[in-house]
Amino acid sequence: MFPRYFLPEQSYWTIVGSPGDASEALINEAGTIEVDQMSFSIEPFLYVDNTLVTWNDVTRSQSLENDYLPIPSVQWKYNNIVLTVRAFATGNAGSSQLIATYKIKNLGGPAQGKLFLAVRPFQINPPWQGLNHPGGASRIDSVRIDNGMMLVNEKRIIPLNAPSGIGATSFANGDITEYLVQDGLPSEQQVLDEKGFCSAALAYDFDVVSGSVKEIHLVVPFHAWRGSPTPNMNDESAGIYVSLAHASTRTMWQSMLDRFQVKLPPSAQPIINTIKSNLAYIFINQDGPRIQPGSRNYERSWIRDGSLTSTALLQLGIKDEVREYVDWYSTFQFPSGKIPCVVDSRGGDPTNEHDSHGQMIYLIMQTFHFTNDTAWLRTKWETVVNTVRYIQKLRAERKTDLYRNGTPQQRACYGLVPESISHEGYWNNPMHSYWDDFFILRGLKDATAIAGIVGEKKLEAEFAVEREDFRKDFYASIRRAMKNKKINYIPGCVELGDFDATSTTVGINPANELGVIPEPALHSTFDRYYDYFTKRKNNTVAWKDYTPYENRVIGSFVYLDQKERAQDALAFFMNDRRPHGWNHWAEVVHRDPLAPKYIGDMPHTWCGSDFIRSVRAIFVYERENDTALVVGAGIADSWVDDSAGVTVTNLPTYYGTISYSIKRVGKSVVVHLDGTLHVPSGKIIVKSPLSKRIKSATVNGVKVKAVKGKEIRVDKLPSTITISY
After folding, report:
1. pLDDT at res. 204
2. Is residue 109 part of a domain?
3. pLDDT of 330
């Protein structure tokens, strides 16, 4: 009769909303819908054969429309009756509304009874989700029925189909389920409850003949109701209203998510569906220009999350929203040049998180890479200069005699930026985090490039000196820290010598320091990670939880030319979507899916953006050290061997869009390359589609030599490459 979290067991959910809107609903895996933040829920019950049927009595499944559109459904199967709950948001930000459809289908035999839609003072978020957003109960102080609509704390529920009954109750007179279990409703049409425990329900009689369906629709405006729609339409009119809204919403999402296409064998296509779904969830979590990782606990905008999420958007062809985000966030830069780690309704947060400065410059440069908008870049020049000046001030604090000549640990801090808490593992004790320093290096590299692009030659030279000085001190620090702690891997910070491959990933990308990061320590880091990953996957080592930020390592293995490991990690993380049908992750995955523990927001779109960036590298990535465009570095052998092969259409890059196909033809593999890009100075590098050394190859019929038997260099489009093994 109550939410699963009272057992206590974990329940999972997904989000429903319009792009950029500040209000979003949640629907959980049982079909209960929380209509807005900190608001009440609408919960379905069936009354069949003198029995009240609850979420615990049915076989449940979850899905998205077309397997990727953010229009979620939950299906109940009870004997010959199938109830499908579908939720979507329609309308623009600021005027959107939630539409819920309850479809009853008869698979054969008698199907008579009632659908109850109970309004109850519960959130979807369990009580243990109270990090920044208290979960569990949500007050309902009043319910009244007014002109066919139900007003719950003055929020409107508009039944498009006329219900057969409607009523409300205060807690003193019993929870609504005490009436439903007896196939009844309270008679009250207006109730108050000082404890905030009002509840109510709408009833719908049904008698569905074999093979047919009945649909019931509710509308809940997220914002002020403007007179439409009206309640209690006939079934045909209600169906037409919802059908038109649904078609409009579906078309809108398709136009946003289908700008690129990747076709894989059917068994692998869920990977691409998951990319598209997470792109949609990023838009739904966004409030105006604010790119945010969540809609409840993480409804704030971090430059850390925002810079990497924005990169994922740019990589999928989304430009305007990223420019708007950069323009908005940069206005919160402090007079000192400091970039705030996070911005919310109170403004910029002054907490020291020293990754933020590099991340802002990096995001500005990423935006330019994908837009080539020099005029816009010039508008951000002052932001870049002021940020570099602040970085120089921070470094000066660690370039004193104390750090030049002090203890071994102090000497390992020389020339870095000071300790901070940007790495969440150092929240209680700020550390000299290499996560920060990789982003500082990335920022100095990009600041130098930006200076050159906008014609600031004097500052370009100065920033280049600063970049190289920092790089020298940074890698000296890593080597000293490794020596101090007697370790053979890249540590997470100076003080601890901690192992944290998920953090070290940013050194490979986006810092793009592969080939410069000390070896063999870098490879040892990811060898060690993969050893633990394999043991965890096989449950041969004790573990309780992990965070899907680890999605980043998929890309790291691609950049390290270890595509079998990348594919292994990809399969593992895909399997931990909960539930699979909604294509996303929370911030934390527990080994026990029912463990009643904190999991963060669902979907958590920083985790989702890490997945997007990593999987994009499987198909294409920009190689900074030789200015090359690398194609197909992580593609699985099984995809190539499948008769469907691999087809990529209009995937954005720094140099324009690329399209290609890879398919086995007899004993050879044929790659067709095309696109609207200009070939970079380092050329297009086609990685061997199979995990074998290339024996021979031709490009447009001309024999070419494979570099190290692993890659083919192409200098023009279109091109057809035929590879033999």
Report:
1. 98
2. yes
3. 98
pLDDT for 513 equals: 98
79, 58 Cβ separation under 8 angstroms: no
**If we measure between CA atoms, which residue out of 552, 474, 458, 464 comes closest to residue 513?**
474
pLDDT confidence of residue 10:
96
CA pair distance 704, 711, nearest whole angstrom: 11
Question: Residue 720 burial (CB < 10 Å; 0-12/13-18/19+)?
Answer: middle
**What sign for the dihedral angle of Cα 143, 144, 145, 147?**
negative
Distances 433 to 113, 257, 488, 503 between C-alpha atoms, Å:
62, 36, 18, 9
Total domain count, the chain = 2
Question: How many whole angstroms separate alpha carbon 270 and alpha carbon 366?
Answer: 28
Is residue 507 within 8 Å of 490, Cβ to Cβ? yes
Helix, coil or strand: residue 75: strand
Q: What is the pLDDT of residue 134?
A: 80
pTM of the model: 0.97
- For residue 370 the two structure tokens come to 């994908």
Domain residues for the domain of 135 are 4-257
- Kind of pairing, strands 684-687 and 628-631? parallel
pLDDT number for residue 423? 87
* Alpha helices by DSSP H, 91-208: 176-180
Here the CATH number for the domain that contains residue 153 is: 2.70.98.10
Place of tokens 């009874």: 113
The reported pLDDT for the residue numbered 132 is: 73
77-109 pLDDT, tens digit per residue, is 999 999 999 999 999 999 999 999 999 999 999
Question: With contact defined as beta carbons under 8 Å apart, do 560 and 523 qualify?
Answer: yes
d(CA 150, CA 281): 30
**CA dihedral angle for residue 630, residue 631, residue 637, residue 641, rounded to 10 degrees:** -160
Q: Which two tokens stand for residue 634?
A: 């992580």
Last residue of a domain, one of 257, 287, 307: 257
662-671 CB contacts, 8 Å cutoff, 24+ apart: 662/632, 662/635, 662/689, 664/640, 665/722, 667/724, 667/725, 668/722, 668/723, 668/724, 669/640, 669/722, 669/723, 669/725, 670/720, 670/721, 670/722, 670/723, 671/631, 671/632, 671/720, 671/721, 671/722, 671/723
Q: In the chain, which stretches have pLDDT less than 70?
A: 131
Alpha carbons 720 and 714: distance in angstroms, whole number: 10
pLDDT value of position 334: 98
Using only C-alpha atoms, what is the Rg of the chain?
Answer: 28
What does the block give as tokens for 577? 């979507």
Side-chain-facing half-sphere of 675: CA atoms under 13 Å: 27
CA distance 549 to 528: 17
Residues constituting the chain: 725
- In degrees, rounded to 5, the angle at the alpha carbon of residue 431 between the alpha carbons of residues 349 and 511 is 80
Final residue of a domain: which of 238, 257, 276? 257
Whole-number pLDDT of residue 425: 86
Q: Which two tokens stand for residue 228?
A: 């439409």
Please tell me whether residue 439 adopts helix, strand or coil conformation. Answer: helix
Q: In Å, how far from its chain's centre is CA 690?
A: 30
Residues 344 and 355: their CA atoms lie apart, in Å, by 18
Class of residue 647 by CB neighbours under 10 A (exposed 0-12, middle 13-18, buried 19+): middle
Residues 697, 541: Cα–Cα separation, whole Å: 44
CA proximity to 547, closest of 495, 617, 596, 610? 610
CATH number at residue 688: 2.60.40
